Amino acid sequence: MNLIIFGPPGAGKGTQAGLIELNYGLKQLSTGDMLRTEIASESELGLKVKDLIAAGHLVSDDIMVDMIAHRIEQEDCKKGFILDGFPRTVAQAKALDHMLASKGKKIDHVIVLVVDETALMKRIQSRIAQSGENARADDTEDVLKNRLQVYNEQTAPILPYYDLKNLLYKIDGMQPIEVVSSEIDSLLEQR
Ligand code: AMP
User: Fold this and answer.
1) Of 33, 139, 35, 154, nearest to 88 (Cα)?
2) Distance of alpha carbon 165 from its chain centroid, rounded?
3) Is 56 in the pocket of ligand 1 (CB under 6 A)?
4) Per-residue pLDDT tens for 1-39?
5) How much is the pTM?
6) How far is the C-alpha of 172 from the C-alpha of 176, rounded, in Å?
């Protein structure tokens, strides 16, 4: 089974994807984490994307699609995967479908965490306050505003694409972590 977990920055995608990995053995693939690893290792790709990410802009579709295409071939994705932070543009969503079809795979569900943007700002402000020196380079209020704008302009338009395919499963992401997680369980256990 292959899933996408979808929602704006700070909606809790990473937390829920981690729980799905733990409970169902599907591999969490966070493109943000993969890019941060590239930056930390100062690879050619890392150096190329560092400033874009720090400013809250998106990395190019080609780079991202290639990254995921290679990653899902690895052994740990055999049971399936959860895409966390990908796709982020309609072009990425279409390229993903095309690439999966060429490998005889598909997306089974798109789990959407629906959140209130004002509450989200507060949630991220507290994440910034708690993380101190370990704060992500893109966890500042200005960058967050930019990331939310990028989400609304470039990422949210993906939703109608998956809606037409009847794949969307919306969950109120403002609920406690355990409640969101148990709603995800009800979806996955129907299978
Ligand atoms: P995240 O940890 O998912 O919030 O991602 C952090 C940053 O990495 C984003 O703000 C983008 O700059 C970049 N990024 C992550 N995933 C993608 C993607 N699928 N397409 C383009 N840029 C991405």
Assistant:
1) 154
2) 19
3) yes
4) 999 999 999 899 999 999 999 999 999 999 999 999 999
5) 0.93
6) 10
CA of 191 to the centre of ligand 1 (A): 30
Ligand 1 center to 122 CA (angstroms): 20
Question: How far, in Å, from the CA of 125 to the mean position of ligand 1?
Answer: 19
DSSP codes of every residue in 113-124? EE--HHHHHHHH
Write the CA distances from 53 to 9, 10, 45, 140, 182, integer angstroms: 13, 16, 12, 12, 32
Rounded CA-CA distance 80/63 in Å is 22
Burial 93-116 (b: 16+ CB within 10 A, else e): bebbbeebeeeebebebbbbbebe
* Other beta carbons within 10 Å of 16: 25
Pairwise CA distance, residues 151 & 149, whole Å: 5
Query: Cα angle at 153 between 157 and 179, to 5 degrees?
Result: 65
Give domain 2-182's CATH architecture. 3-Layer(aba) Sandwich (3.40)
Ligand 1 pocket: which of 4, 28, 30, 35 to mutate (most atoms within 8 A of CB):
35
pLDDT digits (tens, 9 = 90+) for 32-43: 999 999 999 999
User: Of 96, 97, 90, 76, whose CA–CA distance to 25 is shortest?
Assistant: 76
